Queue: 4 jobs
Job 1
Amino acid sequence: MKRILGALSIAAVMAASTVVQAQDIVLQALFMKQTAYSDKDVRDMTTDFEAAHPGIKVNLEFVPYEALHNKIVASISAGSGGYDVALVDTIWPAEFATNQFVDDLTSLVPPRDPIFGGAWKTGEYDGKIWAMPWILDTKYLFYNKDILAKAGFDHPPATLDELTQQAKVIKDKGLADYPIVWSWGQAEALVCDYALLVQAFGGQFYDENGEPAFTKGGALKALQFMVGSIKDGISNPRSTEFLEEEVRNTFSSGRAAFALNWTYMWPLANDPKQSEVAGKIGIVPAPGTPEGSPQAAINGSMGLSIMRNSDKKDAAWLYIKYLTSQETQDKYASMSLPIWKSSYADPKVVKGQEELIKAAETSVAIMYNRPTKVQYQEISTLLQQQIQSALLGLQSPEQAMKELASQTSGMK
């Protein structure tokens, strides 16, 4: 019965496409302006969509990632007249579904197998899909090949210990004042780097009983590593102020040998107009540890949702279906890689970014998810504050994590 109803729902939406095209419909769509697809990419995709669906126009709005969540919540509170389609981070479906901000898309989405399993985690909560996967992203280790060669290394670090050792040699030889740069400003970017390190050390945010596990194992080791790297002078101390763009600019200027960043940095750091190290860059999965995970990767994927208060749901789904189609994603596969498995064997997708694709084949399969919590935003804010407190030397890692565990205990 569920399969029949699902098929009928899809058929209804497809049939509606003829109706929608005959009308003058204006969709309001909200995106972010930072990483992944560029504003221009989204505008070009949308222009192509409008040409294929002459009855539909899409008004685009771009905001920084840090403003995206609150912008969506505010639009729901305003009632009708808000957004029809919005870009949703993988950490929000629990909150958005529970509070009925977005529609259940389970009956509309395509078969799962052709799409990476990690991508489906983007919009999944309580066994249902609340956002169609669109941006498939994780953080990689970028490295400056010239600096490594001058330091006497013929390969990038395979473990965090090796990263530390190589960074110390690079610093001692005067090749970089601070060899490693991170996104450790007080924002979600900081939680992403921390979560990646938690995975590397074999840790977890919550134990099997659902209690905070920040004070032990890999969760504590991750923060100890972060604090130690600043004290040792191998991580740029300004990382505590940086977001992704500051990381990209520091690395692209040749002032860092290593950087952790998203896919979007690969084409930009290799663009001679924007980078002093273009053509000298390598990319590999983030290194792990022998006792934890051999490599590490954070799930930074995002999906497209239909807002619950939209009165143009059929047109909204047509737009989402177009943007997430394999044809569209393959065409714009430079700053964000496709969610479709077979795209990675397509010469048109692979050409010119062979190193990135090779790294992605490992990283995409092991992406670590931040907690699926209705109160994730509050948990993340507390986590950012406590990590920053330790990084700035205001508390020891042990004290910071003990206080965090107390603050977050019982949060849903």
Job 2
Amino acid sequence: MLLLSEDQTRDALPFSGLIDALDAMFKQGCEMPVRHHHDMEVPGEPDATLLLMPAWVPGSYSGVKIATVVPGNSDRGLPAVSASYLLSDGKTGQALALIDGGELTARRTAAASALAARFLARGNAEHLVIAGTGRLSLNLIGAHKAARPISKVTIWGRSLEKAAAIARQAGDLYGVAAAASDDLEAACRSADIISAATLSTDPLIKGDWVQPGTHVDLVGAFKPEMRESDDAAIRKSTVFVDTLAGCSKEGGDIVQAIQSGALRPEDIAADLYSLTRGKHPGRRSEEEITLFKSVGAALEDLAAAILAYESKKPS
């Protein structure tokens, strides 16, 4: 069985190829049961979450990700997400690969946002604003740069020091002009793409700040009680999701907006299935504000695992 470390997994999943792999899998589809989602008490800090995410392409590949999300890890200097992915032969059940699930998750999550941006962000989008300084921040910069001509990145976080560290890494890794900011409003007002990846329970991205033509990418808030955007941002945007079933049940930005009346389920324009299959054109004008909410899907994990395995398996 192939074993892929964090570094090997990163090397096996270049963003341009991974975005294409997700595009192909959303077009093709796969079997994807509803994921198991369990809260786990962690004394003295917010609950952790255990996720079990299976998916398979009949007769081809099957896989399952076991992931834990521990918000308290930020205070320990550890990634919030820890995971492993087991990929098996879809015909025989033979285990093929055990892949670092944290790196796989971070990269496929960022790639899903970039895939959406192919359809929803303006073709000339240059200024990316990142809200959040966790593991996803650098991945989102790399992924969006693979989809759009990003040359300027502004990073906001609750710790300006962490944001500055991310900015330095982004400049070194991706050759962009990156800077930290403690003024999220000013950054959002000048952004082409706003990408939020936090565990916030209070809206960070305000609709009053979002200018015509902006694409808003909401990656965090994977539970109903979490939220990264306010009702005003939802009301003024054309709303898209990664999967309708997942976001309408788990994505706080969608769930709470529906509860408040800011959004009706039928107002969600499309998901990634419809976008990749050409059933919705995506952005319709240069002035349109688009908003994409993702909560993650086992389909994305499977596509990434297959790409990693096929690029690293012995010839």
Job 3
Amino acid sequence: MYLHGKKLEEIDFFRKLSVHGRKLGIHVLVFTPDDVDGDKVNALYYSMPARKWKRKLTAIPELVYDRSRYRGAQNLQKITKFRALHDKIRYLGRPLTDKWSMYQIMSGESDIAKHLPATVLYSGPEDLLRFLKQHQRIYLKPHKGTGGRGIVRLQRASDNVYFLQGRDRQRRIIPAQMIEEKEITEKLNGWNMEGQYIIQQGIPLALKNGRVHDFRMLVQKDGDGRWQITGCAGRVGPKKSVTSNLHGGGAAVPMDVLLTERFEDQSKVESIKEDAHTLGMKVAQFLEEHFGSLCELGIDLAIDPSGKVWLLEVNPKPSREVFSRIGEKSTYRTAVTRPLQYARYLFSRKTETEE
């Protein structure tokens, strides 16, 4: 989808896809629903000789790698209309569903359920107060939100007194403040949370310096159509932030560095990594069984002080920038090329079927 001024959010990633695609014999076109006219599309393509983007009118590709961020009813309408009009297109992956529905679906698989923080749908202040009695810390999250927007953390300081901090809908940091239980409802009044937010058990994520952290795992299909763990990296939030998202100012740290800093014992670190990888593969396989063919998943994980692995969130349109930021060039290159290799695998299978 175009941002203001017909800009595209991931244009550098699309350039890399185009360059690597050419090496694999795949011609990459970039377009939005606004570029479509009937069965033709005025698509962007990256000209290697000119080293710049150009446009050409061409047929709509038969295989689409959907990177659209909906962000608003108008964009969602455009995507829905495009999918309905061009229902013969095959997609590398597919959308999943909102955070609350995902929690309900994954709770049905026992091997995954034991890694899920307790979660309920917010229907009123009484839900929040009841959850606060059960858990030392909780998170309030928009069940359709992304990028750390609108997330609030409440942490018990003493009887009936809580520490509140978070980010507003524009991702701006909400100053940390101490509030009494009776003030909570008033503070959150006007956020329109009923049915729009989930309340989630908070996993202790603070490092020794007080900053929160988590891990982003990238699970992708390879050139043979098999799931692989491409990589996993730590994300550390900025000061006074309750989220670690890179878009919100977070920093990327190699997984081994972050785990060793916290646990020191190398056998413990290896055990945690093994648990995380096992969980990542289970999640990918289970969600594919439920939703149908997928291409890649960004899986957000938390490791508590005991070393238990928790599953926080699953994203079907993940970024891979975290690997570039920690200097893992090979992992980043693999993260970029795997969707292309999987696309070539799908093309080859289609050809074999037609023959």
Job 4
Amino acid sequence: MTSEHRKPALFGGSEFEAFKGGEDPAQISRLAHDTASALLGRVRADPDPGVIDRLIEYTDLHGIDAIAELWSRAASHSLPGALWRIYLLRALIRQDPEQSSFLFQKGSELSVTIDPVVAGATSPTGPKEITELADQILRGIFDGDFAVALERAAAFCRIMSLGAAAEADDTESDSAQRASEFTVRANRFAETASEFAICAKLWRTDSLD
């Protein structure tokens, strides 16, 4: 995920479609920041479990498009940008939990850092476990330490990047196209991990707005 924010699709070779928006970029930016701040502030002030459950399940019922219209154009190192990426990450995992869990497990086995511990997935990580992890990370932005939730998301993406890069190497001799698709995924996950990590640091210094 780069500065161009698009509809969720598998981290593959195809590009995401750009969202159309209003004519006033400044107004769109204000709306994104205002809604992100208001939502997060209200829920964190009174973290009712039922409300949080509905926020987590919102995109399951209404799709990711409504969230994207609010936050997908925000800068990557901003509160709405961070929220968009968290929701998008969850949507991507739920879109293909089998492959997501496969890449995550592969990346976890290759990792030489504490990222698997930080991400907090149950091992071994199957489709059910990785879906639950996505929900836990999203829940953490509402009823836990927001920076920790972002750091978990960053660790998750770094592991996925490792797994996708390894799969690219493993499939290169059989299919150059498939290897290229996994390389693209690896790069996107790595970039998104960096964005989450920067947002976490900004949050800790009250600089994420």
